[in-house]
Amino acid sequence: MRPFKQVLLYRRDLQMRKGKIAAQCAHASVGVLLRPALRAHPPGTNPLPVELSPEAEHWLREGAAKIVLSVEDEEALVKAYRLAVDAGLPAILIMDAGHTEFKGVPTRTAVAIGPAAVAAIDAITGPGGLIDTRLA
Questions:
Q1: If you write DSSP's letter for every residue of the chain in order, what string do you get?
Q2: Are the C-beta atoms of 90 and 56 separated by less than 8 Å?
Q3: From residue 15, how far is each of 19, 50, 123, 131 by CA, in Å?
Q4: Which of 30, 113, 114, 123 could form a disulfide with 6 if both were Cys (CB 3.0 to 4.6 A apart)?
Q5: Number of domains making up the chain
Q6: How far apart are CA 35 and CA 94, in angstroms?
Q7: Residue 103: which CATH number?
């Protein structure tokens, strides 16, 4: 078993197209890795190369395990994000601009948690975790 993984969550209540779900999860997966570098540099500057945490580097070198799960609604999505942040895990909450779906209304669609230790993520999103999730 790999020691690190990333979990991607999306909202079932939005009934997004499969392609939209994939795009939102991709935004989350990339965003959680790049956000620290982007925050450390002013807009208009190139923050790359990205410095990775030891967990992220190990995760990328060992196959970058990603698990996609769904949550019931926005409340569960935000709760998962907050629990992850409170636990000190890398996490990002994705807000879609609403240009292609959601009738122009910005909408919280997805969360990425990790890469981080499997046990730490499972405490939040795994079987018996604090958030009710389903396999995608």
A1: --SEEEEEEEESTT---HHHHHHHHHHHHHHHHHHHHHHHS-TTS--PSPP--HHHHHHHHTT--EEEEEESSHHHHHHHHHHHHHTT--EEEEEE--SSSGGG--EEEEEEEEEEEHHHHHHHHSTTSSS--EE-
A2: yes
A3: 11, 34, 26, 19
A4: 114
A5: 1
A6: 12
A7: 3.40.1490.10
91 bridge partner residues: 113
Contacts of 85 (CB under 8 A, 6+ apart): 91
Peptide bond into 115 cis (omega under 30): yes
> What pLDDT score was predicted for residue 1?
64
Q: What is the tens place of the pLDDT at every residue in 12-66?
A: 999 999 999 999 999 999 999 888 878 888 888 877 777 788 998 899 889 899 9
Q: Which domain holds residue 19?
A: 4-135
User: What does R_g of the chain's alpha carbons equal in angstroms?
Assistant: 15
Residue 45 is predicted with a pLDDT of 82
